[in-house]
Every structure is written in structure tokens, then in C-alpha cells.
Amino acid sequence: MEKILCFPEPNEKQKLFLRDTHKYVAFGGARGGGKSWAVRVKSILLCLKYPGIKIMIVRHTYPELRANHIVPMREMLSSFAVYKETAKEFHFPNGSVILFRHCQTDKDVDKYQGTEVDVLFLDEATQLSEEQYNRFKACVRGVNKFPKRIYLTCNPGGEGHGWVKRLFIDRNYNMGENAQEYSFIQSLVTDNKALLASDPDYVKQLEALPPKLRKAWLEGDWNIFEGQFFEEFADRPEHYADRRWTHVIEPFEVPSDWNIVRSFDFGYSKPFSCDWWAIDYDGRAYLILQLYGCTANPDEGVRWYPDRIFKEIRRIECEHRWLKNRRITGVADPSIWDDSRGNAVIDSADRHFVYFSKGDNRRLSGWMQCHYRLAFDENGFPMVYFFNTCRHAIRTLPLLQFSETDPEDLNTHMEDHFADSFRYFCMSRPVTPVRVQNTYELGDDPLDQRVRYAPYTYR
Length: 459
Ligand SMILES: Nc1ncnc2c1ncn2[C@@H]1O[C@H](COP(=O)(O)OP(=O)(O)O)[C@@H](O)[C@H]1O
Ligand SMILES: [Mg+2]
Fold this sequence. Notes:
CATH architecture of the largest domain: 2-Layer Sandwich
Helix content: 25-40%
Oligomer: single chain
Distance between the termini: 65 Å
Bound molecules: adenosine-5'-diphosphate, magnesium ion
Radius of gyration: 25 Å
Number of strands: 15
Strand content: 15-25%
Strand order of the largest sheet: 3-4-5-2-6-7-1-8
């Protein structure tokens, strides 16, 4: 007798996901939206449609992989495919295979380097770093007739928040990335009728979460998530003109007698950030220009070796109307004086007449200074503004998250180079915190404890 595999009816968003044939498909949004379910069903459907196809399902840890996928799929497929426990693979009679892999550390990814698959599913992709994502992506290869696709599911927040948001929400593509290959489907918990019927209290539980987490998990809001390090950072175009309650503003002509400070954070395999700040008569700082790039991973085709960086800094300072013929003081990442591995980066700076003093690298006091500068006074004016042309500053600052191991620091695995440069700048010109009415009641929530240090305004 013919065996028939039956699935419950997918919801509307799941249907979109199941039918989507873009090369990169992200299924995002709220918890409980039915994303992992869709991964299970899609992977099985592909196996049945394309005999001999090879599929890999990845999740952060093995226990999650087991609970979310292996156990329910063993149930679904009991008479349709054989599960091989040691290999962690389903083998279908038609030759199709589903591999289950977890990825908690970079070492885990090393093990999968040689694996070739046709379709990759990254469940909870926001728990993977961009580096891990790129390495998994490289497993999708091979010369055969099968489709080559990558399906991701994602929640706002987590270490991978930045790259997932860039590719699927902001759709801000680098060289070599083709916008037409990316598709995003937003699922909301309210889309999952099966869950609402079986567990009507689930939404109530999500509604009881702290506001930021609720916005992220219930509404799938990618701009707000738990653990955002610079919570107070505000980019409000509607206030660019009056400059109140916003840190980002339209550029203006910088008066010729304002002081200019250049701050610099160096990265070899990570980006460097060179930032020019203009200081007005009240000591208020404006980030007016930024040079940002990477030595190892070329951005827009340019490899930024130290000589090239400092040559370009020098050129900008000689030519740009806001900088030329001015005295510019520089402050930099103290590690560029390190010559233990050969030439110190600072020697290259010296050769190009780009001078720096050593930045104060006390991290906690540095972050406090950043917060003091960002804090709005009672009229809504901060002590630092960013010209909206400094896109890497504006892009990276709101993405940074608290470190999981050190609640007073940020997660240094993220793109923190502009933030470090900002910190060296702030430490070179410390300000006293503005006394503002704190309109937020601090509770017992550990998140609140972490932000107690800074006189934020919460509105
Ligand atoms: N179309 C569906 N029919 C029946 N149950 C579903 C369906 N979609 C999801 N579910 C169930 O709803 C619950 C939440 O779905 P899940 O895929 O785990 O959500 P997410 O991964 O988005 O958090 C699970 O118990 C799942 O089996
Ligand atoms: Mg899930």
C-alpha cells in the first residue's frame, strides 16, 4: 500500500516560505511564528521532490537541534526515512539525505568545512556570527541539477542580529551580493493559528516581557532588542532641523575656528575607523567625516593596508575644506604603538605626517564618557552629534550589544571599531555628566542594573 506523508495545513506566511525559491530566504520575526516547523516541512518536501538531494539543518547547540528538529522529524518520518544516530542524518529511500549539524564555536564550523550540500537551513541564524555564516554558506556548492539555496530563520537580537538585518531588513548590499537573490518573510506570532489555538496564553506570556524584548519577539521589531549597548542612541530625521532628541543631523558648514580632533581605531582582520570631530564653543562634538574600511576583507574592492590608510587620511586632511590648514589633534588605539610583531602601525602614520597621542584605553570609564556625551539634557540636546553622512558610525552604534560575560562592557565580537574610536575621542575630552531627570523607574531587572551607571533619559 502506498504510504502517504501528511502535514498539517501551513499558515499563510509558512506557505510563502515553502514556495519561495530565492537563493537566500529568511523567515523572521516573532517567537512561535512557526519558523522551525517550516524548516522541517520544507526540508522534507525538498527531499521528496529531488531524489538524491543533500540538505543540512544547522542550529546553535545540539540539544536545541535535537528538541526542535531531530525528535519531531523522527516522528514525522518514521516510515519514510531512516535516522542514523551516529552520523546524525536522515536517509530517504530515494537517496536524499538530511544532515543535522550544530555550531556553538568556530571549531564546530571547522568540522563541516569539507561538507558539500545543495540546500542549507540555518535555524535561528541570528545566533551565528557573520564569520560562521560565511563558512556555512561555502558548504552550499557542487555541480548537479539540484537547486542551491540557503534558508534562514531569525529573531531580532543575538550575535548575528547585525548581518541578518543588513541582508534582509536594511537590504544594504556589499560588492558581490545580489539584492535580487534575497527574500524576507516576516512571521508574527499571530500568524501561527495552530499555536494560538493550542496555547492561547502564549501571546499573554510574550506581552508580559520587558518592553524591548516584547517589541523584538512579539512584533519582530529589528531596531530594538535586548542588550543594545547604546540604548539611548537616537536617529530621528524629524528632529534633524531643531536638533532635539536626536544624535544624527544633516551636515552643515563647519566654522573655521572650531577645534578638530581625529580619533582612530585600527583593525587588521576587522575594519578600522578614522573619525574627525569638530568641537563647538560649548565643547559639543560633531562627527563630521569618517574613513572606514578593512585590510583583510576588502570593502568595495579596496584593501586598506596601514600605508594606504594614512596616505588617505593625509590626503583628506590636506584637501577637505573642513580640515585643510587646520591644527588637528589625533588620538588612537594604543595598540598601534605595539611593535612586538614587526613594524608598529604608528610608524606608518608618522611617515605620512599623521600624528596621534595614545588613547586612554580604560574601557568602563570610556563607555561612561560615551554615554555622558550621548545623554540629552532637559531640552533634548546631547553633547555629541553625528552628521548623517557618517554612515558606518550610524549603522554600527545602535547594533552593539552588551557582552554576555561582562555586563559593563560591550560584546567585542561585534563591529565595535567606530565605537572604540568614539571612546578614545570621548576620553581625550571628558565631560561631566548632565544632571537629568531620570524618567525611568529602575526595577530589579538585571538589565536595569547594567544601565544604572549612566544618567540616561528614557522616554
Ligand atoms: N502549520 C502548523 N500546523 C500545526 N502546528 C504548527 C504549525 N506551524 C507551527 N506549529 C506549531 O507551533 C509551535 C511553534 O512553532 P515553531 O515552528 O516552533 O515556531 P518558531 O520556530 O517560529 O518559534 C510548534 O509547536 C509547532 O509545531
Ligand atoms: Mg524555532
